[in-house]
Structures are given as C-alpha cells and as structure tokens.
Protein 1
Amino acid sequence: MDGLAKNEPPSTMEQLPVTVSYVTSFWAESRENTTPNPHRREIEAALLVNIHNPYLDQIVVFLDGVSKAATTCDHFLQDMRQLNAKIGLTTLERMDPFSKVVCVNIPGDQPNYFQMFNLTLHDAVSGDIVVLANADQVLDDSISMARSLNPNVLVVLGTRGFPLNEIPPIIKHFYVTLVGDRHLPKEEQVRARNRNNPDDMCATNPYSWDTWIFDRNALQGRLKEEHFQRPLASKKMLTFSMNEMGAENAALWALQQTFPFSSLYNACDKIRSWSFHLTPKTHKVHETSWLCERRAKYPCGSVPYPWGGVRLKGKPRRSHPVVPKDPDCVYANNCFLREPSGFSVEDEIL
C-alpha cells in the first residue's frame, strides 16, 4: 500500500501484465415475467458489448434480489448466451467471450454505493484496475487506456449518451438487434440533438458521471461506511444508491476520504462511454427527500456540506463536487503511464 502513494510506476523488472475488471450490478427478475422491462433489455445489450470488448479482461456482475422465484446467475448466463446468438457476429475470437464473465448472486436489495465499492474488493474480482459503472454504460476500444492508469489517479467518465451520428456502428448494432429501433430519436430529434445533445454529460454537465476507474489497491482496507452517508431533510444520515440524484457527487467525497488521490480526472474526452438508456429514466426516491438547497448556485439533488452546494449554519458554502478535465496529472502528462497501441474493437469482433 505504501508503494501506491509514491506516484511512480514500478520498475521494468517488476512489471506484470495489468488486468482490468468491469464491475456492475443488475437486478434479478421473476422467471414468471414473460414481458421484459425495456430498460432491462437495454442493459443486457450493454453488457454484451462490454463482454465482447477485448480490453476488459473480466466482467463481474453482482446479481441482486436473488430468490427462489427470481433469476439466478445460472439463468442470467443462459439468457445472455441466447441473446448473444442473436447478434450474429462472425467473430474471430479464439475463446468463448463468456469465459471472462463472473456472476455473483446477491440476496436482498440493490447494493448501495458503499456496498458497490466494497464489492470491487470481492474475491471474485481479479483485476488490478476496476471499471465500476452503471450497467447501461458501454465502453469502446478507448477503454484500453485504463490498463495504464496511474494508480494515484481517480478517473470518472461522463457519458456521451447515444448520439446516432457518433456512436460506433457495431455498438449501435447491438442495441438495435436486441432492443429494436423504437426508442431511437426520430430524424428531427437527431438534428436537434446534434445541435445540443442533452444526454452528452461529457460535453454539457460537469456534475454528472456514471463510470469510475481506479486502482483496486487504493481501496483495500480503507473503505468506511460512515463516509458513504448523506443527510435526509430530517437530518438523518443514510447510505445512498447509484441511481439517485447527487449520489455520484457524495460518493466522490467519500472516495477522497478513503485515499489521497493525487488527481481526480474526468477523462471522458479520452475514454468514451455510451449510454444504452433511451427508455424513460427513473431515479430512486426516498419518502423523506435528501437535504438540499434549491436556491443554491449548484444543482438541486446537490449534496450539502461537506460535499458542497449548500451553506449550513456556521459552515461556508463550497462548490458542488466536480471532477475536472484538466487536473494536475494532465499537465504533468502522467494520468496514464503509457499510451496504448492502436487497436479497434470492431476489428476484433467483426
């Protein structure tokens, strides 16, 4: 652990192949349900793209809500193989893409943010670098950069959405084949989105991201649940989940308490993530809302002090937690310890 904080790559003699694990959660579904949730099919399509991505060495899915009447990991993997057969790729892969997929049954509800970061330390996760993301996020060949991440840098990615004029054709193929085109924007909507894509968080919203990339050793033995709590309007402190307003901002503060990262870097201009969420969006809502200040300069859903955006009695207002695109490591040219060689995901799977 001490060596992690020296901000220096290991010597050539010590270097071993760096592996990357993609970690996410997914909900189990009743086997009696014959009409799949539209967003569930979007997530399954997103997972398949990531499974076929050669730069992700392992895909770990924590399946929550498992019960006798619900999907188990065995069912999940069976369903995913059946969907994969519909894609119709003439693949040159020398191995079964599902050989790198690990599914772990999790009884109970959706893991909260603290539990999700804790699960990245689970024995099932083998990668040196973890890519923790919402399950509807799709990564392309630019994720190859994660393998050379500086272990003292925390990277997040604001999604680029689903811009029809930019998304790689093979990624769009997965979506249209498995989900259909009824959720895709119409021609006039495409023209409007091209002018100002509201789903492009990378370009338009510095307060939002859906993907975290970090060296797994940075969290070993350091995570504390108390850091992953935020106050309700009643002032009661409570843990929070990934699909809640302001959750990633509160989680950012928690990670800053966990490890002294030398830089926080929103690398969405270098590493592209696309969103398979064109169906209606929902956020988890508590009976008692989170404490926030609608008159604050920063977005509501904003987390209060010490995270920022709200002035509490006797406390100064601080800016809403945000991850810059130009942190110190960009100027020092050491956010990543080497640039990856050119390679195309499309070349690999077509």
Note: The longest strand covers residues 20-27.
Protein 2
Amino acid sequence: MINTSHALTYLYLLIYILLSSGVILYNKWVLSPKYFNFPFPITLTMVHMGFSGVVAFFLVRVFKVVTPVKMTFEIYATCVIPISAFFASSLWFGNTAYLHISVAFIQMLKALMPVATFVMAVACGTDKLRCDVFLNMVLVSVGVVVSSYGEIHFNIIGTLYQVTGIFAEALRLVLTQVLLQKKGLTLNPITSLYYIAPCSFVFLFIPWYMLEQPHMDPSRIQFNFWIFFSNAVCALALNFSIFLVIGRTGAVTIRVAGVLKDWILIALSTVIFPESAITGLNIIGYAIALCGVVMYNYLKVKDVRANQPASPERNSERVSKDWKFEKKSSDIYVPNDGSNIGSEMKGDEEAPLMPSSRLSHIGRTQVNNQTNL
C-alpha cells in the first residue's frame, strides 16, 4: 500500500508532467497562425517575463514570503545580467521555433541539450572531455540526425532557431555555475524570478522593438486578456511545481519523469495538432538519441554517488533544509563537490518563467547530491 508521503510525491510529479506538457502545447496554440494566430514569440515571452517579475516582486517585497539575497551591484552586473541575456535568448529562439516546426520535432531536437551543455562546459573549462561521455554525445547526435532526416515537414529555419536556443540555454547553465556558484550564491524559484525576469524583459525589448513592433497592427492583432493571463499563470505554476518536485524527489526520479513527459508530449501533440505527424524514422532516431541520454544520465548519477559524503542521511537532511521556504534560511550555498549543474539534464525551454530545466537553474547541485526518491 502506498503511504501518504509517496502518494503526495507521485501527485507532484503528475502535476509537473501535466503543467510542463500543457505550457508547451499552449504556447504552440497561441503562436501558431493556424490556431490563435499570435505570431509574435518575443511579445509572448515578454508577457511571461513581465508577469513573473510582478508576481515575484509582490511575493518578495509585499508579502515577504522569502527574503531577497544580498545582491550587490557587482554580482548583478557580472552574474545576473549575462545569465539573463542568455536566458532571454534561449526563450526567444525556442518560442520562435514554434512558428516553423512541430511540437513533436522540437521535443526530439531537445535531446541535443546534454550535447550542447557538455560542449559548452568543456569549452568553458567546467567539465573534462571524457571518452565515455563523448561517445554518448555522438550517439545522441546521430539519433537527432536520423530523426531530422525522417521529419516530414522539415524546416531549416525552425530547426536553426531551436538548436540556437538549446545552445543559448546550455551556455546559460554553464554561466550559472561559473558565475553564481563560484560566488557562493544560490536562488530559489521566487528570488530567481525576482532578479532575472525583469532583466530578461529589458533584453527582450530590444529585439522586440526592431523585429516585432513594426509589424504589430492593433487592428489585426487578436488579443484576449484571459488567454494571455492564463498562459502566464500556467507557466508560473510550472515553475512552482518544479520546486515542489525538487523538494520531494531526487535527480533520478526527475530525469525519469522528464523522459516520460517527452513521450507523452510527442503523442499528445500528434493528436492536438494534426500537422505534427511523426514517422517511423522519427521514432527510431529519437529512440537512439534517448539511449544516449539515458546512458549519459547514468554516468552522471554514478559520478554523483561516487562523490557523496559517507553519511547520506545527514546529506539528505541538508538538502531538504536548503530547499525550504524559510524567511531565515540561508541564501548562501557553497557546493562541496563542484559538480557541473549544467550537464545534469536536458533544458526545458518551455518553462518560460523559470530559467531551467527540470530543476531550478540555480542550486541544482543541492539536489544532485541526493539520488534516492
């Protein structure tokens, strides 16, 4: 019989899978000219950033749910601004891809996330080139190439947008480790939104003014307040569900949930969007890529377990304590193992309010130190 604690954990995982899939499908529906017909991805992303920034401000400054970190101008200028720039870029390119390629194909391309992160980590000196990991990356790349070859409605522009967004996200993950963690600074989901969302909004304003604003004719734009509001609320809820999942599971469980979500999303997208038809070659290529991703995750989990302290009970208690929403909780965390947060898992660009993957983009090392459910 499943006890209450496990039932609650599975409920949080289900909520995460539903919200993550829902946000992706919702974004596609809003942006697609065949459906709601709002082909302005930068504008949609700015709506998300503005909404998340306002909500985070009220939670931090008005309701005082959490205490803001001790942010200096130096940290903001050297850490938050560059991270926000690449975060904004990854969302911009990722959302633009919805205009050109199907949701199913986008999910298959996202299998490249470990490859992009590994390449960026090696280039920045935060990870070492290893033969076993390199072979896994080659396997993933071959799988994505096969899947792309089998795509019926292959579009080079949409593919380039998505791949560029993946590499921008990978570089943001590496910068998070290099810049923020070296300064001993970690942010929870609320403080992350509080500092990064407004900065990302400003970065997005420049391409919006140059690329989308001249083409936005108010008489032709279909605007519905409740659609944009509910879209932003769903994205914000996704970020908080990620926080809840982090507090109750380990890295392995979240990886498995992420893979399950990808398959569910690919199947759902073919039903909701008939143009998202997939071929047998798509499935074969994605399966090959997924084998590489699974092997890569196994190697990373093995590395984390090898670096674990002798007392896992104490370490688990430390992780749980670090992730609590306490006003007096420390906002400073110094990782002990120096593990690479960026190379742990694929990125979820579909979570527009939260920089990150299936884990909070900052403080991921805290969770990776425990691998049991």
Note: The two ends are 17 Å apart (CA to CA).
